[in-house]
Amino acid sequence: MLQRPIWQRIQWKSLIQPWQNIDWTLLVLIVGVTGFGGILIRSAELNQGWTDWMQHWIIGGIGLILALLLARTRYEYLLQFKWVIYAVTNLSLLAVMFVGTSALGAQRWISIGGFYIQPSEFAKVGVIITLAAMLHERTASTIPAMLRALAVTAVPWGLVFIQPDLGTSLVFGAISLGMLYWGNANPGWLVLMISPIISTIFFNLAFVSPWFIGVSAVWVVLTGAIAWRTLPWHRLGTLATLVVNLLSGGLGHFLWDNVLKDYQKDRLVLFLDPDKDPLGGGYHLIQSRIAIGSGQLWGHGLNQGTQTQLNFIPEQHTDFIFSAIGEELGFVGCMALLAVFWLICLRLVIIAQNAKDNFGSLLAVGVLSMLLFQLVVNIGMTIGLAPVTGIPLPFISYGRSALLTNFVAIGLVESVANFRQRVRY
């Protein structure tokens, strides 16, 4: 009797059973975007002889395997290891200060066996897990609980900020805000929490334009009103809020003069008028805008962009990869990519809503906050709407640590989906 071919004898259902409840739409979208990223990296390096696009795909393959392994492992196990994960996160960031490698004025990488690892990237996932576990045990519905969560986040945030890595420290802030909001924190408290930063910006802009004097005054009054409505101790809380916001201008000047590095100052200022230093700090942004604008509706075609192929944009394969999309694939290509990212964010929201517990829901929201913030800031800085902060475009920019981190994060979310209660949606 003839045996059936091996592909007919394989029990395919049993092979995929460990992953039968994962969100396949999300996984396919992530793999597709990663593959697309390799194609764009190759185009950006076509005339330079580099093979970063191949490494991007290899690291993406490794990341996919890690994501699938995490997806079949119950995410609840992480609850008992939250402080171990938190300790390892902080110790890795401390190690950068002593054995780290410096580049571009920052000390961010550790060399292990010839490979450069960026602990601050993996620290994002560590912070998400720790915050999710804390807010699972006690929601942020009270001010002490919210401050406790912020205190835990402040340690890795501070270690990243002093590297200095301003971009990644901003990502930590976005993760914290998103998870605190999902963890039942009063939205007014979150506004008050970031109000000193906004006040600092407005007060410093008042030295440039008198119009911002009125804007600053309105903002301070608004924060006082929010404090009166949301804080349990109305008078004291409102007074403290007004004082803090009024003093933020002076604090901003101190930080500007004594904390921020020169290249960080250039990034924060030159996006407003890059023509002030067209051959220096403003060069990246000027060339990026030229590339994106020249793409018009349909683009010049893959591997056909003049700015991209003639290497006018330094480090285009990393932080400025979106300019290659705009030039070679045009407005249509940019909108198609944004549509894909919108679907990815939508799947993350659906997983968060349908998770069986707060821990899983918060994990999904933390990953959503991380990816969405990086997406908005990266695209914003390439078109001149945000300062250049060195934040990569998720799954597309070249960066081994960043890509692995994103796949690990997706693996955690897929575990939440895989072990959720059966729901209809």
UniProtKB/TrEMBL annotation:
<feature type="transmembrane region" description="Helical">
    <location>
        <begin position="362"/>
        <end position="386"/>
    </location>
</feature>
<dbReference type="GO" id="GO:0015648">
    <property type="term" value="F:lipid-linked peptidoglycan transporter activity"/>
</dbReference>
<feature type="transmembrane region" description="Helical">
    <location>
        <begin position="211"/>
        <end position="229"/>
    </location>
</feature>
<keyword id="KW-0472">Membrane</keyword>
<dbReference type="GO" id="GO:0051301">
    <property type="term" value="P:cell division"/>
</dbReference>
<dbReference type="GO" id="GO:0008360">
    <property type="term" value="P:regulation of cell shape"/>
</dbReference>
<feature type="transmembrane region" description="Helical">
    <location>
        <begin position="166"/>
        <end position="182"/>
    </location>
</feature>
<dbReference type="InterPro" id="IPR011923">
    <property type="entry name" value="RodA/MrdB"/>
</dbReference>
<dbReference type="GO" id="GO:0032153">
    <property type="term" value="C:cell division site"/>
</dbReference>
<dbReference type="GO" id="GO:0008955">
    <property type="term" value="F:peptidoglycan glycosyltransferase activity"/>
</dbReference>
<feature type="transmembrane region" description="Helical">
    <location>
        <begin position="329"/>
        <end position="350"/>
    </location>
</feature>
<feature type="transmembrane region" description="Helical">
    <location>
        <begin position="236"/>
        <end position="256"/>
    </location>
</feature>
<dbReference type="GO" id="GO:0009252">
    <property type="term" value="P:peptidoglycan biosynthetic process"/>
</dbReference>
<dbReference type="GO" id="GO:0005886">
    <property type="term" value="C:plasma membrane"/>
</dbReference>
<keyword id="KW-0573">Peptidoglycan synthesis</keyword>
<comment type="function">
    <text>Peptidoglycan polymerase that is essential for cell wall elongation.</text>
</comment>
<keyword id="KW-0961">Cell wall biogenesis/degradation</keyword>
<keyword id="KW-0133">Cell shape</keyword>
<protein>
    <recommendedName>
        <fullName>Peptidoglycan glycosyltransferase RodA</fullName>
        <ecNumber>2.4.99.28</ecNumber>
    </recommendedName>
</protein>
<feature type="transmembrane region" description="Helical">
    <location>
        <begin position="53"/>
        <end position="71"/>
    </location>
</feature>
<comment type="pathway">
    <text>Cell wall biogenesis; peptidoglycan biosynthesis.</text>
</comment>
<feature type="transmembrane region" description="Helical">
    <location>
        <begin position="142"/>
        <end position="160"/>
    </location>
</feature>
<keyword id="KW-1003">Cell membrane</keyword>
<feature type="transmembrane region" description="Helical">
    <location>
        <begin position="83"/>
        <end position="104"/>
    </location>
</feature>
<keyword id="KW-0812">Transmembrane</keyword>
<keyword id="KW-0328">Glycosyltransferase</keyword>
<dbReference type="Pfam" id="PF01098">
    <property type="entry name" value="FTSW_RODA_SPOVE"/>
</dbReference>
<feature type="transmembrane region" description="Helical">
    <location>
        <begin position="398"/>
        <end position="419"/>
    </location>
</feature>
<feature type="transmembrane region" description="Helical">
    <location>
        <begin position="21"/>
        <end position="41"/>
    </location>
</feature>
<dbReference type="InterPro" id="IPR001182">
    <property type="entry name" value="FtsW/RodA"/>
</dbReference>
<keyword id="KW-1133">Transmembrane helix</keyword>
<comment type="similarity">
    <text>Belongs to the SEDS family. MrdB/RodA subfamily.</text>
</comment>
<dbReference type="GO" id="GO:0071555">
    <property type="term" value="P:cell wall organization"/>
</dbReference>
<keyword id="KW-0808">Transferase</keyword>
